[in-house]
Every structure is written in C-alpha cells, then in structure tokens.
Amino acid sequence: METILLLAHPEPDGTLSKAAREALAAAVALARDLPDTSLAIGLVAVANAQAAADSIAGCGAARFLAVIGDDFATARYSTDAAAAEALARAAGATLVLAPGTSRWARCLPGVAQGISQRAGRPWFILLDPGTAEPWQGEPGHTAVEQVPVPIDDRLRRTTFAGWRAPRTDQQTIRPDADLLFVAGAGWTKKQADGQTHLADAAGLILDFLQVAQASLGGSKSLVDLSGEGQAVLPFMTHLNQVGQTGSTPRHPKGLSTCCHGEEPHVVGWRFINQRRAINLDPNCGWAHGKADVLYVADAFTVMEQLITLMARERLAVAH
Ligand SMILES: Cc1cc2nc3c(=O)[nH]c(=O)nc-3n(C[C@H](O)[C@H](O)[C@H](O)COP(=O)(O)OP(=O)(O)OC[C@H]3O[C@@H](n4cnc5c(N)ncnc54)[C@H](O)[C@@H]3O)c2cc1C
C-alpha cells in the first residue's frame, strides 16, 4: 500500500501556485496509475488552508492535512522541515511529492535524510515547475485536519529580516512567461556603420520585454561582458545566462537575437518548444536545425518594428 503525500504552500489568499498545481496533477496521475495507492494533501500555511483545500476538493485525495501558523509565513529551514516531517508522519506517507521551488528544495533533503535512516520510506520527489500540466478540477468543501507542530525558540533562531528584490522594472527573469527572449553578444558588436549602439540595444531589449512580458535570457558571451564591468547592458547578469553552464528555462516559445546559436548555448533551449532566431549570418548555428524559423535580418531593425507593431496592437485592444 502506497500513500502519496503532496506538499504545498498556499498563497496568502488561499490560492495554489501553478507549480503546486502541476505537482498535484503529477501526484493525482501517480495515485491513479499505481496499484493500491491513496493520496493525501499536506498544506503548510499561515491561514487560508481551508480555502486552498476547497479549491482542490475534486482532486480525489483521501485526506487534507494542514500545518497552520505564523511560523510558516516565510521560508525557514527549521520550521519548514518540522512542518514537512509532521505532515509526512500524520499521513503515513511512503512517497512525498512537492513542487521543486527553492523553498521546498531547501528543506526536503533534510527531512528525507532524517526519516530514511530509520525506515527507508517515504521517498521524496521534488517536481520541477513546467514538467506537468497544472491540475484543474472542481472546487468543493473538504474537511481539513490540522496537524500540530511543536515549534520552540531553538527552531526560531533564524528570523526573517525582510525582502531584497530588484526594482520591478529590472526584474527580467519571468519563469511563467510565454516567451523566452534571448540576447546575444551581437547586440554589443560594431554594426554596419562601424559603430556600436549599446544605448539603442538596451532600449530595444527592455522595450520588448515590457511590451511582450517576456523573460530575458542571454548568451554566455554577453553576460560575461556585463560581468566584467564593461559599459554594456547593465541589467544583464549571470542569472540570465542560458546554456550548458547556465540555466535551462521552460517556456512555450523562444526568440533568439544577435546570438550565434552554438551548441553550448542551445543545449539550454531543450525545453523550449517553438524556436525562432534573428541573425545576420545565414549560416549561424540556428540555421543548422536548431531553430524552427531563422530570420536572416538585422535584429535592431526587426525588433524596432516588432515593438512598434505590438505596442500599437496593445493600444488598439485597450480601446
Ligand atoms: C565549456 C563551455 C561552456 C559554455 N557554456 C555556455 C552557456 O551556458 N551559454 C552560452 O550561451 N554559451 C556557452 N558557451 C559559449 C558558447 O560556445 C558561445 O561562445 C557563446 O554562446 C557565443 O555567444 P553569442 O552567440 O552571443 O556571441 P557570438 O558568437 O559573438 O555571436 C554573435 C552573433 O550576433 C550576430 N549579430 C551581430 N549583429 C547582429 C545584428 N545586428 N542582427 C542580427 N544578428 C547580429 C552575429 O552574426 C553572430 O552570429 C560555453 C562554451 C564552453 C567552451
């Protein structure tokens, strides 16, 4: 008999994030496909666990468990781990699933270690966002069983000091965006007139991100330039780098600009479904089967026209 426990942190308003619903969909499918298996939901919340449970009442879970309290408002290893352990024990879980968010990724390895030394089970699996379709179904009313967790001052030694986040107009990485927009080193190179056009490049890239609400990726060559403190695209950091030594983002579509499309870069595109590229070079890497469509054109001109068209379209929709 397997008991799958799906862990999730509801949002303050009682909704569940897309990543949580994706992990739920995977847990529901697993519970359906494995013989003799039941599903339990474990919510770690400040409040509103009931609303979160009701919103997924139709998922077929046999039990809805919740750990509730102010101690769980923000990520903290000690209290998150204590909550996960209490829920795993209360559910009698043999398999624990959670969305692969930084918060769960930080505490579950410790919880798994503690328990596996004794019994070997449960197994813990973190599901990367984007690997499953989010669960959809009817809300309803559920009976939430509250699980007590003894939190003492030792577990409260780490305290939450505050948020430090980039200004919202500098927030260029948007994991939920429909489009990945990649900028390559070509944006910083001398153009047909023999000059570089960094200010134009920065303006076009930021304007496009704004109008398309796209997520910004970069090639290694471009982010290395920025990291070396040169006066190039100041909003570009190593966090934007896509590729073998960078990230492997998941978006339905990708548009590459001024990037050659070499293998160490394109390997980071393996979860991007529809791929297009703009490059002056008809023989660039994208032309060798790595893009669905390659526009052999000047990215400065194409992006300028694209932004104008998209902005006009948005204006028309707004009216
Ligand atoms: C071990 C190892 C790991 C690596 N890991 C990564 C990684 O994780 N990610 C990564 O990106 N790279 C990685 N690289 C580097 C990779 O091999 C390439 O060097 C890098 O991707 C090249 O970046 P780029 O295409 O932006 O620059 P370039 O090769 O300089 O290409 C610039 C492109 O811009 C085009 N261009 C210029 N002006 C315009 C214009 N006006 N309009 C349209 N096109 C224009 C040019 O035609 C050219 O194709 C790695 C390399 C190694 C050896």
What keywords describe this structure?
32% helix, Rossmann fold, six-stranded parallel beta sheet, 11 strands, five-stranded parallel beta sheet, single chain, binds flavin-adenine dinucleotide, 18% strand, 319 residues, alpha/beta
Question: Strands, helices and their partners?
Answer:
Layout: E1 2-8, H1 18-33, E2 37-45, H2 49-55, E3 63-68, H3 77-91, E4 95-99, H4 102-119, E5 123-127, E6 144-146, E7 179-183, H5 198-212, E8 215-218, H6 220-227, E9 253-257, H7 263-266, E10 274-279, E11 293-296, H8 299-318
Parallel strand pairs: 1-2, 1-4, 2-3, 3-6, 4-5, 7-8, 7-9, 9-10, 10-11
Helix pairs in contact: 3-4, 5-8
The protein binds flavin-adenine dinucleotide.
Give an account of the 3D structure:
32% of the residues lie in helices and 18% in strands. The protein is an alpha/beta fold and 319 residues long. It folds into 2 domains: 2-146, Rossmann fold, CATH 3.40.50; 168-318, Rossmann fold (3-Layer(aba) Sandwich). It is elongated. It binds flavin-adenine dinucleotide. Flavin-adenine dinucleotide is lined by residues 184-186, 189, 191, 219-222, 241-246, 258-260, 262, 264-265, 268, 278-281, 284, 298-300. Flavin-adenine dinucleotide binds at residues 184-186, 189, 191, 219-222, 241-246, 258-260, 262, 264-265, 268, 278-281, 284, 298-300.
